[in-house]
């Protein structure tokens, strides 16, 4: 397919309004295969304004007289206005943007064309999360093994090639367990908590169906988990659905673990909303945040009504529950909902951040996202196809990953020294998960990424983010490794609206940027002072 | 410093902190009982009681009462939550793991007590049903249960009543008994002549008058006033007859460049008949004419329009267009002291003892507290904008000009003048716009007064401090002081340990010789300044701060209003702590470096060739690495 077929017009004169805080830009507007360009004035070099078309969430056009206006609402929640000379030009540009921003083909997307200077293809795809993580686990316990039973993705299309499973269970048993689990997602190890020797597992719902089917291999798998932990160890199954919803799922072939079938395991239900209610909550919140209406006396009840902060609270509480079970109760925890690709990952990844100091480092956090979200098969392409502005009815969209980032932000706010990365990192992850020049968040699973050759044909976001020039924006200068668990407060007044994200484009970020800069100054000053010994400097030969 | 799961979150950290603080100040302790005592503080009684802690249940303890404080130490160690997650009762062992042993301490200055009630009677049944219920001014209540036999609570009730409400018992307030000594004298912080000189006053248009030296012109104004050069003292006397309580328009602040001013006063005495006063009209015109190029003077009436109209019935009112041709009047819709008091009461209802969890935000909204904050800030922003743009000089008044007017002028000055954002500058601002201009602290707070339901009480000053906190949130680098500074001011607003906030006006303070007989709060703060410094402070001259006064950007000051609740994660800002450590380390290195540089001084000839430190905060630091 040629992009040129979709581009109706080469260029037009336009003025770009980027919100109240930024000066308007005038220049020549131009649509290319992946970008919208605005080049101001005749000078060839100065600031070229560039927008990835993929990041356009919705487009609105209006014409009046011989000019037109296009309003672009972006996936990063920015709202841009383009005033364009000429009615035809306006309509053509609008149609081109519409067509190009909604292309569904992965391999024609921009990451497959993006070749930034200074980065080499294949770099930073060095992450082999299950393998790397298995090495960590193997140092601590012999109860687990790395299985490549899913090498060809036949057991479970949404799992990576390698997964960590109990040593006592062989690959044939895994295959049987996979057939008993929704989408083949049999219980696998998500996190090994060395201090208590317990584990966090994740899976999808068992396919008990109305006849309450059982699967001996699945039961054996969970039994082996407890046996591997320590004699008499207990387990908790955290089902992210309500007891009623779990019961109802039987009618459609799903269900939940019967108590009698899994001795030693106790089920807890902690319903977390996902899917459409979550997406709607997100849409309502963004609407409220962007409401230009000045009389916002009802703001708080409107914020309340969006229920976004309740979702944050529920997600954090459930993660705390799982983490406490391991840390204090010495219990093994299995988390699942229905498919095990959304709320499940939210809970397991947050629980790890709470418990595991390594996951709070820059490298560890990247690895956590790679392992617990990307490789674990969170369907990014489906969930992040549109953000909060799309007019089309949401099908599979849901801001689960954003909810995760928000929860991490709340952790960072409550424990300002304990995360090595700062708000900038979380904002970058949000932006890139919805539209990115990098390949990291493409597709829905490892299987799809293999088919599209994402690893060999696109650049990894991690290599982009780990460049030295990005660090000042992404790192937390005050980070001090904290070996302990960080228990967040989930009381409603401890949770805040993430202004840095939801009000990013409506409020001048300058004061907080100045403060951030200040923190950096202090921290780097400190390093310099610490790094050089006064004695050395004094004995330095002077010219 | 790093947060820990097992880090004991001490629900009473504030009290503990105050012990540490007082002991640093040279506080004596009763040996064996570890009761902190200030110089001048005497022990009255002690008693075994059960403290009914709203968070942890009944706790047996011994309560000590002095002429300054109520101090409780638990006899047994008690259990408390160390984390914020609840609803875990299904986890049997969890309970034990999540609760920590520690002795509980309550350290409450008697000044914060607003009401003491007897709970239950000699025949009341049920456990812990007989005792005392204490309502505090700082967003908490205390409840003690006593033994029913022998009227055991009677003497405790009487002693508490006596020392918490000394006014009703012809006793002195503790501030007059306090014998604390500090290196710095806080009473020297504010000198009106110096402050006006800093503003460039007097000048060609404005003069300093001593007409109120003996408080004869206006008994609630300070002795020293700044008025237009062209208005004679006789003019001032005539204007005074037309202003409520003689609070004539006087200068609060002058813009250093465009010379527009903020003027404060009370409402004109227009009355139902619509009286006019030529002298007042002329006087305002003289104020306008101090800036030649301006043809309209802006008057901000802080009240809602309807209230201003209603005030005519009691002889007050506002400047009409007919009478004041060269002025334009705007109403700022800020409600009166009664509305504010009720609003704060509602805030207390939803945060103490338990936080209203379901629909927290909606409940918060229904208190209207943040909405009032918004209106006050919006009003101050308008005043600041008028003046900084040089559009016109501004006159601010409400009814009497000591509540909303003080809020507006002081906040506008804080936005306009970076000097007031330093620690001493802020002390001067409070001392000037609030204390010297007669904000009725004694009536609004009710120091030592038992009449808890007095309609004169109102959290106007707290509201101002809240607005300052909101600003400091939005401009993290603009203020020299931190949150702790604002909280300690509020704590001692009630404590009666210092003379700073006692009495309603300067004339009363002078009569009582407050500056001679009491210690100033600024003495405590300024001899301990590092503790109150904001690590991110970047000194900036001439930057006007315009906070966003939209509901979206205002938040409830959790660390103040909900500080007694142990479930609120309330870390002593670790960023600051870390910063202080770093700074101390850096200072040490710099000192060593300087010593070495001194020893090697001939080698360092040209400082411009050496890389300069990236720090703007300490420009004198030249690191030669």
Automatic annotation (TrEMBL), chain A:
Residues 124-502 form the Myotubularin phosphatase domain. InterPro entries: Myotubularin, Myotubularin-like_Pase_dom, PH-like_dom_sf, Prot-tyrosine_phosphatase-like. GO terms for biological process: negative regulation of autophagy; phosphatidylinositol dephosphorylation. Coiled coil: none annotated. One of its GO terms (molecular function) is protein phosphatase binding. It holds the Pfam family Myotub-related. Transmembrane segments: none annotated. It comes from the Eukaryota. Belongs to the protein-tyrosine phosphatase family. Non-receptor class myotubularin subfamily. PANTHER family: MYOTUBULARIN PHOSPHATASE DOMAIN-CONTAINING PROTEIN, MYOTUBULARIN-RELATED. This is Myotubularin-related protein 9-like. The lineage of its organism: Eukaryota, Metazoa, Chordata, Craniata, Vertebrata.
TrEMBL record, chain B:
The active site is at residue 398. It is an enzyme of class 3 (hydrolase). Residues 14-25 have a biased composition (Basic and acidic residues). This is Myotubularin. Residues 367-429 form the Tyrosine specific protein phosphatases domain. Heterodimer with MTMR12. Interacts with KMT2A/MLL1 (via SET domain). Interacts with DES in skeletal muscle but not in cardiac muscle. Interacts with SPEG. Gene3D superfamilies: Pleckstrin-homology domain (PH domain)/Phosphotyrosine-binding domain (PTB). It comes from the Eukaryota. It comes from Physeter macrocephalus. Residues 1-25, 600-625 are annotated as: Disordered.
């Amino acid at each position: 397919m040629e992009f040129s077929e979709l581009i109706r017009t080469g260029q037009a004169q336009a003025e770009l309004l980027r919100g109240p805080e930024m000066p308007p830009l005038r220049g020549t507007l131009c649509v290319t295969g992946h970008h919208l360009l605005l080049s101001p004035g005749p000078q060839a070099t100065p600031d070229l304004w560039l927008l990835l078309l993929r990041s356009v969430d919705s487009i609105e056009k209006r014409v009046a007289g011989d000019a037109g206006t296009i309003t672009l609402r972006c996936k990063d929640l920015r709202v841009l206005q383009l005033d364009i000379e000429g009615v035809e030009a306006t309509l053509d540009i609008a149609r081109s943007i519409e067509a190009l921003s909604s292309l569904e083909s992965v391999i024609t997307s921009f990451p497959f064309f993006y070749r930034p200077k200074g980065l080499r293809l294949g770099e930073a795809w060095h992450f082999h999360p299950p393998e790397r993580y298995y090495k960590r686990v193997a140092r601590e316990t012999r109860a687990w093994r790395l299985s490549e039973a899913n090498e060809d993705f036949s057991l479970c299309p949404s799992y990576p090639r390698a997964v960590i499973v109990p040593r006592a269970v062989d690959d044939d048993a895994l295959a049987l367990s996979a057939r008993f689990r929704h989408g083949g997602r049999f219980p696998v190890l998500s996190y090994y908590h060395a201090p208590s020797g317990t584990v966090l597992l994740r899976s999808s719902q068992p396919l008990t169906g109305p006849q309450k089917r059982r699967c001996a291999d699945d039961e054996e798998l969970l039994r082996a988990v407890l046996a591997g932990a320590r004699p008499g160890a207990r387990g908790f199954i955290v089902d992210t659905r309500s007891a009623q919803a779990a019961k109802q799922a039987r009618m459609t072939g799903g269900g939940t673990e019967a108590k009698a079938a899994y001795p030693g395991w106790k089920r807890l239900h902690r319903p977390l909303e996902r899917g459409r209610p979550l997406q709607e909550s997100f849409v309502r919140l963004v609407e409220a945040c962007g409401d230009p209406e000045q009389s916002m006396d009802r703001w708080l009840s409107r914020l309340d009504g969006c229920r976004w902060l309740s979702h944050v609270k529920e997600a954090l509480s459930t993660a705390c529950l799982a983490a406490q079970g391991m840390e204090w109760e010495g219990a093994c925890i299995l988390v699942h909902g229905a498919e095990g690709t959304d709320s499940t990952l939210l809970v397991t990844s947050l629980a790890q951040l709470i418990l595991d100091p390594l996951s709070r480092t820059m490298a560890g956090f990247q690895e956590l996202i790679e392992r617990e979200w990307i490789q674990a098969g969170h369907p990014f392409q489906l969930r992040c196809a549109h953000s909060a502005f799309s007019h089309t009815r949401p099908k599979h969209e849901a801001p689960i990953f954003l909810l995760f980032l928000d929860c991490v932000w709340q952790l960072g706010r409550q424990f300002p020294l304990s995360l090595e990365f700062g708000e900038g990192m979380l904002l970058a992850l949000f932006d890139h998960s919805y539209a990115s020049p990098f390949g990291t968040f493409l597709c829905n699973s490892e299987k799809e990424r293999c088919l599209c050759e994402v690893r060999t044909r696109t650049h990894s976001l991690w290599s982009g983010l780990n460049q030295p020039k990005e660090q000042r924006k992404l790192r937390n200068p005050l980070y001090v490794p904290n070996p302990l668990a960080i228990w967040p407060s989930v009381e409603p007044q401890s949770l805040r609206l993430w202004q840095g994200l939801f009000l990013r484009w409506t409020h001048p970020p300058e004061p907080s940027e100045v403060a951030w800069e200040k923190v950096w100054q202090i921290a780097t000053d400190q390093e310099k002072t610490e790094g050089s010994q006064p004695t050395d400097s004094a004995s330095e030969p002077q010219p | 410093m790093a947060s820990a799961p097992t880090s004991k979150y001490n629900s009473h950290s504030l009290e503990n902190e105050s012990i540490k603080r007082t002991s640093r100040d040279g506080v004596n302790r009763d040996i064996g009982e570890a009761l902190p005592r200030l110089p001048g503080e005497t022990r009255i009684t002690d008693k075994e009681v059960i403290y009914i802690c709203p968070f942890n249940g009944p706790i047996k303890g011994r309560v000590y009462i002095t002429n300054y404080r109520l101090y409780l130490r638990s006899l047994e160690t008690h259990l408390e939550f160390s984390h914020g997650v609840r609803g875990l009762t299904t986890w049997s062992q969890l309970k034990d793991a999540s609760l920590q042993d520690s002795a509980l301490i309550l350290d409450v200055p008697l000044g914060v007590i607003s009401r003491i009630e007897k709970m239950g009677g000699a025949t009341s049944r049920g456990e812990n049903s007989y005792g005392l219920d204490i309502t505090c001014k700082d967003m908490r209540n205390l409840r003690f249960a006593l033994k029913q036999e022998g009227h055991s609570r009677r003497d405790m009730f009487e002693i508490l009543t006596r020392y918490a409400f000394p006014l009703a018992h012809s006793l002195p307030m503790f501030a007059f008994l306090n014998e604390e000594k500090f290196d710095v004298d806080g009473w020297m912080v504010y000198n009106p002549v110096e402050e006006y000189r800093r503003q460039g006053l007097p000048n060609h248009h404005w003069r300093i008058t001593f007409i109120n030296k003996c408080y004869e012109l206006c008994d609630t104004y300070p002795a020293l006033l700044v008025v237009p050069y062209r208005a004679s003292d006789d003019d001032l006397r005539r204007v005074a007859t037309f202003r409520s309580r003689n609070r004539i328009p006087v200068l609060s602040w002058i813009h250093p460049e465009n010379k527009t001013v903020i003027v404060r006063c009370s409402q004109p005495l227009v009355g139902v008949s619509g009286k006019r006063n030529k002298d007042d009209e002329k006087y305002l015109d003289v104020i306008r004419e101090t800036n030649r190029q301006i043809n309209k003077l802006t008057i901000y009436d802080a009240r809602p329009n309807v209230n201003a109209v209603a005030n005519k019935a009691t002889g007050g009112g506002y400047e009409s267009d007919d009478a004041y041709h060269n002025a334009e009047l705007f109403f700022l819709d800020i409600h009166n002291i009664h509305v504010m008091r009720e609003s704060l009461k509602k805030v207390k209802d939803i945060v103490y003892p338990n936080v209203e969890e379901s629909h927290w935000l909606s409940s918060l909204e229904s208190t209207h507290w943040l909405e009032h904050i918004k209106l006050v800030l919006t009003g101050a922003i308008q005043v600041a904008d008028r003046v900084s743009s040089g559009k016109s000089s501004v006159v601010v008044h409400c009814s009497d000009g000591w509540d909303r007017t003080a809020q507006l002028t002081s906040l506008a000055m804080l936005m306009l003048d970076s000097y007031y954002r330093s620690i001493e500058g802020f002390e001067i601002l409070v001392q000037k716009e609030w204390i010297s201009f007669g904000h009725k602290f004694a009536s609004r707070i009710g120091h030592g007064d038992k009449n808890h339901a007095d309609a004169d009480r109102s959290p106007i000053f707290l509201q101002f401090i809240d607005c300052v906190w909101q600003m400091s949130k939005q401009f993290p680098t603009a203020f020299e002081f931190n949150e702790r500074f604002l909280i300690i001011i509020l704590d001692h607003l009630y404590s009666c340990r210092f003379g700073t906030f006692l009495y309603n006006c300067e004339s009363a303070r002078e009569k009582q010789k407050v500056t001679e007989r009491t210690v100033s709060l600024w003495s405590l703060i300024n001899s301990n300044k590092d503790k109150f410094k904001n690590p991110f402070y970047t000194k900036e001259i001439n930057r006007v701060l315009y906070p966003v006064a939209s509901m979206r950007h205002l938040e409830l000051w959790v660390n103040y209003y909900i500080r007694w609740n142990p479930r609120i994660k309330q870390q002593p800002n670790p960023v600051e702590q870390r910063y202080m450590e770093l700074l101390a380390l850096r200072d040490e290195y710099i000192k060593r470096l300087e010593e070495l540089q001194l020893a090697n001084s001939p080698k360092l000839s040209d400082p411009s060739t050496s890389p300069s430190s990236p720090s703007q905060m300490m420009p004198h630091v030249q690191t030669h690495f």
